[in-house]
Amino acid sequence: MLNRDIFGRLFQIELFGESHSEEIGVIIKGVPKNIKLDFDFIQYELDRRRPGQNDLMSTRDEPDKFNFTNGVKDKTTTGENIRIAIPNINTHSQDYLQFEDIYRPSHVDYPARLRYGSKINLKGGGRFSGRLTAPIVAAGAIAKMILKQYGVNIAGFTSQIGSIKDENHYSIMQIQKKVESSIVRGMNSDLDKRMINLIEDLIKQKDSVGGVVTIQIKNYPPGIGDPWFHSLESDLAAAILSIPSTRGIEFGTGFKAANMLGSEHNDLYILKNGIISTKTNHCGGIIGGISIGTPITFNVPIKPTASIGKTQKTLNFKTKKLTNLKIIGRHDPCIVPRVLIAIEAITAIVLVDHLLISKNQYK
Ligand SMILES: Cc1cc2nc3c(=O)[nH]c(=O)nc-3n(C[C@H](O)[C@H](O)[C@H](O)COP(=O)(O)O)c2cc1C
């Protein structure tokens, strides 16, 4: 049996369960012992990701309460594998009967059957569901607690919804202060209003929209990472692209680097308050797969939600005829503000994995 839903080398996560099974969860290996866990923080993170937070989100009402069933005693890690389970309470499997013969465009219904056969259970998205990001967020909360011991801070915001873009630069402190007061998790109140209006408009039109998530990481120690297939960049990219609906990643100046000259793009070394730094940060904090101590920054584009209520003409796989599909169910018109939390979490998991590997001198 191939290990399928496992990620990480030292701090390793393995997902279990499906969208409509009794529970979903995560087994975490490699968590150091004697780490005091802040249960309120884990719940806070899960609440930031859960549906039904406001009128712009899916009305699926999942409380996302977690249980540690292994590896934690008196709210402290024991050094054994940690197991976190989250019950599925609010499932509406009947909403998915309509996709037995008419596969949702841009969703997993067709490719999942190609890979695993027609008997695969895809109620609620099955194993592919965005719901599996809940246990990732729980594991990410533990990773964030470990990173905090090293003074590392992660923050993200919605920098684009549709064509409405926020191109300003914000410090981590500014992001942390403002982002949770915005229901789209944006940083600029005027742009927030325009983003909200757009999403409200699309709800009326039974359509959906995508956007971009911007992540910043401060105080990640320099000298962490590896070359080649487990470079810090490639592990972050692999982990982030595993989150359903992400379409890419660009570090630092990203794709714009293609239009720059070397003399413009090179980050010149300087001494800042006695510490080696760089004048600019086009590289986004990583060179040669290894952190250099400047903020790690990247953007992640998110596609528009595939499940839309608007009528779509698509193939009925049984009759082989074109037919009208009108998707019912409780789908987010824009998943960007929720995917952001999953991206923060998986980022924390990769950063801890690399930190523990480098600090433990695995060369
Ligand atoms: C937190 C979260 C919630 C999601 N909710 C929905 C949803 O309500 N409807 C939908 O069509 N897709 C939703 N998605 C996206 C699909 O899971 C995803 O598009 C699908 O699995 C296909 O994968 P891909 O887009 O990465 O290729 C969600 C993703 C995440 C991370």
Automatic annotation (TrEMBL):
NCBIfam families per the UniProt record, alphabetical: aroC, PRK05382.1
Xref: SUPFAM superfamilies: Chorismate synthase, AroC (SSF103263)
InterPro entries linked to this entry: Chorismate_synth, Chorismate_synth_AroC_sf, Chorismate_synthase_CS
Gene encoding the protein: aroC
Chain positions recorded as FMN binding sites: R127, F128, S129, G288, K303, P304, T305, A306, S307, R330
CDD domains, sorted: Chorismate_synthase
GO cellular component annotations of the record: cytosol
EC number assigned by the record: 4.2.3.5
Protein name: Chorismate synthase
Assigned protein family: Belongs to the chorismate synthase family.
Protein's organism: Promethearchaeum syntrophicum
GO BP annotation list: amino acid biosynthetic process; aromatic amino acid family biosynthetic process; chorismate biosynthetic process
